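User: Sequence in, structure out. Go.
Assistant: Echoing your sequence, followed by the C-alpha cells.
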Amino acid sequence: MKPLPACLIALMLLASAPVTAGEIRPIEGQRSFKGWELNSWQDGAEWRFSLLGGTNRLKFCWEVKNPKAALDLEQVTEALGKLAEMEYVSWPGPGTLPRGSCPLAQPPAEMTERLRQVCERQKLHCSGWIEVPERQPKR
C-alpha cells in the first residue's frame, strides 16, 4: 500500500480538528493582520453578529454563524470598541459567502448607525454596510 501524500494527511488533520472559528473575542487594543470581518443576520426576532479575524478566503456559513461566535448588539458594540485604532473592519452583504448558502442581512438603520458611530469613535476603517467617511488629514 502506498503512503498518503503529506498534503492529504494535513487536510485530513484539519478536517478532524475541533471547530474553533469565531471563538476569538477581541481584547483591548487587539490588532488583526488582515483586519476584521463583521457579519450580521436575523435569528427569529433577534439580530446576531460575528466579528472574525480577516483572511484571504471566504468564510463558510458554519464559521460565520458559529454559535460560539454569535454576538448581540451590545456584545458586538463592545468588541468593536476594543479594537486598536486604525484597524480595518469590513461588513460584507448577502452573496459574499460561497454559493449564497448563508443568508446575511443588514439590521435596522438605528443599529447600523450605532455601529458606524463606534467605528468613528474608535477611529476604525470600516467599509460595507457600515461605511465611515475617510478622514482627511488636518492642514
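User: And one key feature?
Assistant: The chain has one domain: 21-128.
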